[in-house]
Specification:
elongated; single chain; Arc Repressor Mutant, subunit A; 9 helices; 10 strands; 7-stranded mixed β-sheet; Endonuclease, Chain A; 265 residues; 2 domains
Length: 265
């Protein structure tokens, strides 16, 4: 295999979080199956002084094994196993990072004096949340808090795969889930909407379609709602959301949902 072929193959491996040198070394090993550091140098752009270090990094990832020989021989795992090893490495790394952050959170909350007002008070009229992931995280929190009913107004529910498990857990707790979709999604979104509808029905949600839907959002019981006004030509992921725990406003939104549900098919 030519050096250019190795470099092209390496470009696809960089998506695994590998450095350019790591990706090149792994691509070269895939081509050779096993090799010494010296054999890899002509096939990559890795400097001679760095090649052993790069190979040892791949060993740390778990994608490569080394044989105790002279010169040292590096053997790559089968592509599927090697890629899985790299992914597993990053998953463990991320889990460790999150664990350290949680420990740090405990230290911070003990040491820092906070004299400000709470960021959210019961009955507060509106809070504006930035577009996803902030609004998606808040949506997940709302699903977990639901006791009796979750009501959703959506276009195609493009983020359904990310929150399906939480909705399924809510259904398992006996929470009723009602979803109203727009009956006229854009052509390129029709397949995505159908997939969301199938997934919702699988977990026992009730689904209807409305021709006019000026709002998008979620209503939890009679307590809370996260919503936005429909803005044409703006992707949902770019819309800021309004969060309210005001009982009167949530009541109005529930009444609107009732009317729309009766008019929907």
């Amino acid at each position: 295999m030519k050096k250019q072929d190795i470099l092209e193959a390496a470009s696809s491996l960089s998506g695994l979080g590998l450095t350019d040198y790591q990706a090149q070394a792994l691509a070269a090993l895939f081509a050779l199956k096993r090799a010494t550091a010296t054999e890899l140098i002509p096939l990559t752009e890795i400097p001679k002084a760095r090649v052993y270090g790069v190979l040892e990094e791949l060993v740390t990832f778990g994608a490569v094994r080394k044989k105790p020989s002279r010169p040292r021989v590096y053997v790559v795992l089968e592509p599927e196993k090697a890629v899985s090893a790299v992914i597993s490495f990053w998953e463990k790394k991320e889990a460790q990072k999150i664990s350290r952050m949680k420990d740090l959170k405990k230290q911070i909350t003990k040491k820092i004096h906070y004299s400000g007002e709470p960021t959210r008070e019961k009955g507060e009229f509106l809070q504006i949340l930035a577009a996803s992931p902030a609004s998606e995280n808040e949506t997940l929190q709302l699903y977990r808090q639901a006791r009796k009913r979750i009501r959703i107004l959506t276009g195609v529910f493009e983020y359904f795969p990310a929150i399906k498990s939480e909705l399924a857990k809510a259904r398992a707790r006996g929470v009723k889930v009602e979803v109203i979709f727009s009956s006229s999604p854009r052509k390129e979104s029709v397949a995505l909407q159908k997939k969301s509808v199938v997934g919702l029905k699988e977990i026992g949600a009730q689904v209807r379609f409305a021709t006019e839907m000026p709002l998008r959002g979620t209503i939890i019981d009679s307590d809370k709602s996260l919503f936005s006004v429909d803005v044409k030509r703006m992707a949902p992921s770019r819309k800021d959301m309004a969060l309210t725990e005001n009982a009167n406003l949530v009541h109005v939104l529930n009444t609107f949902f009732d009317v729309l549900w009766k008019e929907s098919r």
